[in-house]
């Protein structure tokens, strides 16, 4: 699509195209001609969308903060679900997981060898030594945000602590590697390097994703790969980085009882941390954490 230089820019800024995204489009077209994968215009957020996603993220962060303050031994994962649901609704948001492709609850709670998509239940009681991922996603005025944190319940083994710690480091190394005019592969490469250095493996079957106007948008964010490969990153892209790191192999299976929960094939522990990030003109901004 070509725009007249004096027309208003496609991004909705109200500014003339020549003074807004013209140079940006030319740079992308050049990269595309050289064979690079470039993002389509519909995944580049404008100011209004960014503001909306930030508001959604603020609710999402608040929900995780409440969980962080209250989660403890003896609590059921259904109670965690209730905390997230009630807080989100009270703040004017909608829990994005609820009824998403049939998901029955408002949050994912994944314990020990569960990789992701654990379903809260009154029958699942947190016990000392458990590590749990609480994955919260929020819709506010139609805008989506997504983040997850790990929590350690009571006395946790040194090896479990180490896994949780290294997985968080993987996330932050991935965020540091995310730069405008860099590549998606830069993120996956550093995550994979750090995880494997510790003898862990990176889950292949799930990845991060574009987020904001929908729950899951392009691109698929690999947590493994090679520097300089994959989609070019540009200002205005918003996506999650959410490495799932296993103590053993990366193989997993989906629990046949609920068709949702991913569990490690070798019963080894799995951890995950997730943030929603925005690529800016000069770096990266964390929105949901
Ligand atoms: N928060 C998860 C993600 O990172 C989404 C899980 S979909 C659900 O993509 F339905 F299980 F919630
Ligand atoms: Co996500």
Automatic annotation (TrEMBL):
Binds 2 divalent metal cations per subunit. Has a high-affinity and a low affinity metal-binding site. The true nature of the physiological cofactor is under debate. The enzyme is active with cobalt, zinc, manganese or divalent iron ions. Most likely, methionine aminopeptidases function as mononuclear Fe(2+)-metalloproteases under physiological conditions, and the catalytically relevant metal-binding site has been assigned to the histidine-containing high-affinity site. Keywords: Aminopeptidase, Hydrolase, Metal-binding, Protease. Its cofactor is Co(2+); Zn(2+); Mn(2+); Fe(2+). Its EC number is 3.4.11.18. It catalyses: Release of N-terminal amino acids, preferentially methionine, from peptides and arylamides. It comes from the Bacteria. Pfam families: Peptidase_M24 (PF00557), SEC-C (PF02810). A divalent metal cation 2 binds at residues 146, 209, 242, 274. Substrate binds at residues 117, 216. InterPro entries: Creatinase/aminopeptidase-like (IPR036005), Pept_M24 (IPR000994), Pept_M24_MAP (IPR001714), Pept_M24A_MAP1 (IPR002467), SEC_C_motif (IPR004027). GO terms for molecular function: initiator methionyl aminopeptidase activity; metal ion binding; metalloaminopeptidase activity. PROSITE patterns: MAP_1. One of its GO terms (biological process) is proteolysis. A divalent metal cation 1 binds at residues 135, 146, 274. Monomer. Belongs to the peptidase M24A family. Methionine aminopeptidase type 1 subfamily. HAMAP family: MetAP_1. This is Methionine aminopeptidase. The lineage of its organism: Bacteria, Bacillati, Bacillota, Clostridia, Eubacteriales.
